Amino acid sequence: MANEEVYENDDIVTLKSADGENIDFVEIAGIAKKGNFYAILQPVELLEGMADDEALVFKVERTESGEDKFTIVIDDEIIDAVFEEYYKLLDNCKPEDEE
Fold first, then answer.
1. Residue 45 CB: number of other CB atoms within 10 A?
2. Of 9, 8, 13, whose CA–CA distance to 23 is shortest?
């Protein structure tokens, strides 16, 4: 068994890539924006071309069978809006002595 960082099972999302490979992501945050729900996910193992502090934005939709469908967002305007909302949430969670 390989050495892996330990995460809570609820924090891990496994998605299938276009070539059929399973990729594990850590859920950083869930953001509701303009009637849609988005998940900010960071790969457990660094993906080619990504820095270790980068994350991806996925639109999450519920299928008729009740499962979550994750679609990667490539629209920069939506990505920026989701991260802006995420940063606002982070700012609101800071202890008063850090502000």
1. 9
2. 13
State how far the alpha carbon of 88 is from the alpha carbons of 6, 10, 72, 74, 85, in Å: 28, 24, 22, 22, 5
Dist. CA 25–CA 41, nearest whole Å = 6
Q: CA-to-CA distance for 8 and 6, rounded, in angstroms?
A: 7
For residues 42-61, average pLDDT: 91
Let me know: does 15 contact 26? Beta carbons within 8 Å. no
- 3: pLDDT confidence band, cut at 50, 70 and 90? very low
18 backbone φψ class: left, alpha, beta (φ>0; ψ -120 to 50): alpha
**C-beta separation of 69 from 63 below 8 A:** yes
CA dihedral 51, 46, 30, 65 (to 10 degrees): 140
The single residue listed with the structure tokens 């519920």 is: 62
